[in-house]
Amino acid sequence: MALSKIDSEIEQVDQEKYLRQATSYYQALEKPLKYGPAVDSLPDLIAALHREFESNYVNIEMVNHLLLSYKSNPREWRKYAKFDRYSYTRNLVDAGNGKFNLLILCWGEGHGSSVHDHADSHCFMKMLKGDLREKRYEYPNRSGRDTGRGHHPDGEIDSRELVEIGETPIAVNDVAYINDNLGLHRVENPSHSDTSVSLHLYCPPFDQCSVFQDSQKKTTAKVTFWSKYGVRTKLNEQ
């Protein structure tokens, strides 16, 4: 194996470790940084994100600023917005050289996610069209956040443990942020007549997460893409 490849792999491990540690203290910006760079288009946003992730010590606040600064332009993201009549879809826009994933999620009328975590990664969610509603819950039995409720080693969770701690509407160009230290969430399109589209950034990327079903049982779910770079994926490529 070439030394350059080894160095690159070591750098990526260091960056992932740093990013996961940052979830223990990062909360989120409410508005763009006063002296941060401007973002004029979706290509500008993607290029700026790649520059930020060149460093092992990613400035998460700057990532947040970039997403806040971008203003939705349907002409730029429409080609990635692929809908399904039965469920919301996850459409890959940019794989971030393995350091982040940028996705567009498309929500049909009344579509919603399960209650889920983010595998100790950062999750940013920016509204591009329509509205979404986020319901947030305590993360049951999470290390360092023991609420004193019972633990079930087989994955069962007492229904009293899945405690809702907030509900927030997300309007066009708003940016929401969550990580596992802040809790779990469920996202839904509250409209039964209009669709919604949102832009999500996950760092580090992950291919599975924990889902908390209505039965209160915690299960592991594989993360898939309905399309990649504007092209519908085949089942074996998701």
TrEMBL record:
Cofactor binding comment, as recorded: Binds 1 Fe cation per subunit.
Cross-link 3'-(S-cysteinyl)-tyrosine (Cys-Tyr): where in chain: 123-202
This protein's pathway: Organosulfur biosynthesis; taurine biosynthesis; hypotaurine from L-cysteine: step 1/2
Keyword vocabulary terms for this entry: Dioxygenase, Iron, Metal-binding, Oxidoreductase, Thioether bond
Listed CDD domains: cupin_CDO
Cofactor: Fe cation
Enzyme class: oxidoreductase
BP-aspect Gene Ontology terms: L-cysteine catabolic process; taurine biosynthetic process
E.C. no: 1.13.11.20
Domain of life: Eukaryota
Family: Belongs to the cysteine dioxygenase family.
PANTHER family in the record: CYSTEINE DIOXYGENASE (PTHR12918), CYSTEINE DIOXYGENASE TYPE 1 (PTHR12918:SF1)
Protein name in UniProt: Cysteine dioxygenase
